[in-house]
Amino acid sequence: MQRSNGRANDELRPVKISRQFTNIPEGSVLIEIGETRVLCTASVEEKVPHFQKGTGKGWVTAEYAMIPRATQTRTQREASKGKLTGRTMEIQRLIGRALRSVIDLKKLGERTIWLDCDVLQADGGTRTAAITGAYVAMIDAVQYLMEKKLIRTNPVQDTLAAISVGKVQGNVVLDLEYEEDSKAEVDMNIVMTGAGKFVEIQGTAEDIPFDRTDLYNFLELAEKGIRTLMEVQKSAVETTA
Amino acid sequence: MQRSNGRANDELRPVKISRQFTNIPEGSVLIEIGETRVLCTASVEEKVPHFQKGTGKGWVTAEYAMIPRATQTRTQREASKGKLTGRTMEIQRLIGRALRSVIDLKKLGERTIWLDCDVLQADGGTRTAAITGAYVAMIDAVQYLMEKKLIRTNPVQDTLAAISVGKVQGNVVLDLEYEEDSKAEVDMNIVMTGAGKFVEIQGTAEDIPFDRTDLYNFLELAEKGIRTLMEVQKSAVETTA
Amino acid sequence: MQRSNGRANDELRPVKISRQFTNIPEGSVLIEIGETRVLCTASVEEKVPHFQKGTGKGWVTAEYAMIPRATQTRTQREASKGKLTGRTMEIQRLIGRALRSVIDLKKLGERTIWLDCDVLQADGGTRTAAITGAYVAMIDAVQYLMEKKLIRTNPVQDTLAAISVGKVQGNVVLDLEYEEDSKAEVDMNIVMTGAGKFVEIQGTAEDIPFDRTDLYNFLELAEKGIRTLMEVQKSAVETTA
Amino acid sequence: MQRSNGRANDELRPVKISRQFTNIPEGSVLIEIGETRVLCTASVEEKVPHFQKGTGKGWVTAEYAMIPRATQTRTQREASKGKLTGRTMEIQRLIGRALRSVIDLKKLGERTIWLDCDVLQADGGTRTAAITGAYVAMIDAVQYLMEKKLIRTNPVQDTLAAISVGKVQGNVVLDLEYEEDSKAEVDMNIVMTGAGKFVEIQGTAEDIPFDRTDLYNFLELAEKGIRTLMEVQKSAVETTA
Amino acid sequence: MQRSNGRANDELRPVKISRQFTNIPEGSVLIEIGETRVLCTASVEEKVPHFQKGTGKGWVTAEYAMIPRATQTRTQREASKGKLTGRTMEIQRLIGRALRSVIDLKKLGERTIWLDCDVLQADGGTRTAAITGAYVAMIDAVQYLMEKKLIRTNPVQDTLAAISVGKVQGNVVLDLEYEEDSKAEVDMNIVMTGAGKFVEIQGTAEDIPFDRTDLYNFLELAEKGIRTLMEVQKSAVETTA
Amino acid sequence: MQRSNGRANDELRPVKISRQFTNIPEGSVLIEIGETRVLCTASVEEKVPHFQKGTGKGWVTAEYAMIPRATQTRTQREASKGKLTGRTMEIQRLIGRALRSVIDLKKLGERTIWLDCDVLQADGGTRTAAITGAYVAMIDAVQYLMEKKLIRTNPVQDTLAAISVGKVQGNVVLDLEYEEDSKAEVDMNIVMTGAGKFVEIQGTAEDIPFDRTDLYNFLELAEKGIRTLMEVQKSAVETTA
Prior knowledge:
The structure is a homohexamer.
Chain A: E1 15-19, E2 27-33, E3 36-45, E4 59-66, H1 78-81, H2 86-100, H3 105-108, E5 112-121, H4 126-147, E6 160-168, E7 171-174, H5 178-181, E8 186-193, E9 198-205, H6 212-238
Parallel strand pairs in A: 4-5
Antiparallel strand pairs in A: 1-2, 2-3, 3-5, 6-7, 6-8, 8-9
């Protein structure tokens, strides 16, 4: 299989993470993976959802959307339709759950960090890009809280990144583009921590069920990609914004 | 860890599959796994969604709901709220995708099989019970189509069942009840075919990320449970309804 | 006119009332009248709607729904459509009103009994079956409250049941099946108390207006059917659950 | 019991029916019964709902609404809430059903008459006033169709009017005002034809169930009131508009 | 250009303002401008929206709707559609904003005046008629508050009226009817105070952009029309209701 | 009055227009005016709304949205709320109307150009920035249609830009920032063509009505600002993308 731009099966697309892409939010990160671009903003709100009230614990939650022409043909706005699609709900629940797995809500205190992931351009892998970028935006929001002395100890417990793997025309490949994704036999999204543990594994056989050997290959490839993403996150965070 | 009713960690709850639970639908299956009970009905509709029109291919889709008092405290109806929750959407997309993986839509022809999974009582594992029961209801609907000579060759390619596994207080356990699920460190749903291949793997670390050894244990346990479920499905299907 | 199963014009279909059909709710009753089956669950909630707050009085309310394939052809879920139909609203208002007519809300105290009537199979008379079954579920919920010593004196003041009558091809008939209902000239639903008084009379001439003689015949027939239903309720309640 | 303005228990409030209250619609009738005022407009549309297409038959349907300050305290608009209340749905279904009972849909031909009943001021009895007024607006719309030679034979088969009766503080009374209605033990709406037959009987015991003697008294009183309303309709229709 | 009824280009249609059109609201005004008729009711509510709470200031807000057959062909109810159109929202925001510009919210105190503008018949200029009529209804509501001694000093600071002007077939005209409006090159709505100042100018070139000379002509014409409207308002207010 | 960055009252903020900000749409323009940033994408769709079908004419329409943290505090998504606010509807109707005023829909042919204006950061003047940026995106979409030979003659008849003016603390100022806008006495949005004519004038006195002299000053200032914006548009369009 020939991948676009001569990319190897185990190779990520070029990744770029820009902090402070806009000036207002506590965190504002543009993540670009190939042609996929997601703007991840972090907003701190000094209240929590009703189910956390009085627990002393905070909350981290995410919302995900695409601008209508992020896609090859224009997609109708969910606001115009008057409701979210199942796909959007599924993705924003995944992002929130992933981020909560590396933050100590007790140390965060009774406040919420909102992560808004707005896809400006979509070429596959938007949900994993959103997790990877939102992690950096969350780091910036936490930094803001510590500078304001609103929290004392850093609640973030580990790094976090995500990538897609899959099988396309029989090949096990890393970081699927839209073209590849649309014809993949298997599509799997993996979220891992810096400690090399799994937070989420979501694998779907679109047409052809897969066996354990495939699975082991997917996991190995995903870990490799996630390691690279964590390096890009690290150098973005270390750069003085 | 002591499980209820002295159940072993690798043991399923009692499973019962009743066909023709109601008389009107083409398939009507009540599946009971412990205290969890899901009514799965199959309806044949002689048309397909717009994206399949003119392709000669059929469609299989699912809807999932709970009656309000399936749960310990009454849950507000989604019809009264005016919209589906993210959880419901996620589950019904999963059920539909899983069933489509074992049916040849070309052989089904341009018609739709609707699988309605209505949870009458919920004690954990409703989504995997729904998949396991809906598979049997789909078999009945296919049988109906063959008897009516609307289709000639059986489009069902393999058997299909699903189960949950997870880690509770450090123990790897099969088929989590509600009590266990609500305090699980890891929760994983596995959908497999009779050929022993994976159709879906959805694993989530609620609090504590998991490593590969955990994953391998989960998969082994799941396969064991799914084999048992497939035997129950088989004897239900073989019984003259 | 020949009715199905050789039923006489003044004869009810076979009636069966099963208590504790599911285990979680305070009351859970499956009522079957011929092929019509309605699951009626009662849930106690320790709060009242805003208009009852601070009055010392409780509330009894009902919700009604059908699973999609309760009907001959699949009906779209109201949750998917995002709103209740007029028919559903009309029916659930009727059920709630009927049940409130035999309970002393002062004695119930500031709490709500929810009656959820979920139609599993529909063959005419679902709203009157729902009232008749929900009455038994309400009795169980009241029993629960008395056993828990949450209320001291039984707030239920009388028994309650409901039935349909109508005119089909010129014949005055009791307990219409779907086939009969769909071609009826007049369709009337009657709710009565054990004291033989009317709680609701809702009669509609679909095509041919009716006169007083018809009306008197309808009422007589309805009372006869309701007396039989009350016996079935009585023996169900007297059975140790 | 002392009724307002010294009205007798079997006496209607003053009734006035004004045709051509607005100029645009095919029929436009303001009906005033005491302080209750309903504007009933009839609109002819040269198409039918999907379920009547190709049958050669027409349709008559109604919509009902109140302006926000028709009531003693301002009621929120249903358009602002984004949905119709159960009460509104129940009423507009009743009005449509009642009007269809006196029109031959075959003679009407494949077109729809919409009856819009907008309550400008509400003092009890709005639904029965709406039926009584909408009947006259429908007559005007039919007249328009005959003058335009769109239909040849008059499809209206009988006259139609409606009134409320009830029991207030033990008294059987005709045409309840809001004050009376809000404390009534029994509230009943009756729709009758000129031939003296019933189209709808909807009786509800709010607190105290009623017996057959009550019912017979209600019916007698209602018929008396309806006869008077039909005279007012007749003289309104006979006046050259 | 020949206008209907031989009206001159700078001439208003006949204007009539009737107070106490209905009896329940604090203010109830029917304004008729030619065939356009709008019922404007004012309701006093002893609370304010959340953003005004605790400020000591009141609020004035408006809602606008048309009955379905106000228009030449029946328009679907927004309540049936389940949402307001953009046009309705735009108009009700305009009416509220205009009325707030002539009232001292501090003197009004923490209460709300709702102005409901229901169009009974529409022949162009409904939004400006609504503003002109709602002003009078607001005056009546303020009068009511002063008589009840709920407020001490009159919060109304100036008179207010509104009119449309535009260019039709090259002619600058005052007070456009529907026929004229639908073919206008420019359509402008002007809201002015008694002091001759502008509260709102909303001008739209439908097809042909306009220049400053046009604009100056529009403003002059509008002021002339608004002066006439204010005289009609004045004599309506001075009449003992 | 001291404006931020020492800006003069008649001075625009720095303006930057970047074409091809994303790669997928037919037109993709990022417009930045000070801290306000709007992404305007143009999408061509080969069909028209139902009211244009069969007319041979095309359509140009706009949608407007803000990402949640475009604003100082996070704004809830309209998609989550399930409906558009009145403000959004008003703005997107304005943008569409403005763009249609400079395009010959006959020459465009039966196709639609969608202009999606997504505000990434909001600091006042987002609607006028959206019009100014969307014009350039529309030019790019038209260019695309001409290169594809889908249209033969350029349907764009004139240039178009928009700006806000207003009165702040008694000063007539150009291009209001959020801080200024929130305390402005008068706020006016002006849309003009290259020929110096008005397409839209929308002026609102928030507190203090304005007179004609103010209006003339507003118009002069607006025209000055719009001339500058048109130069920036021109040089952006002339740059080879």
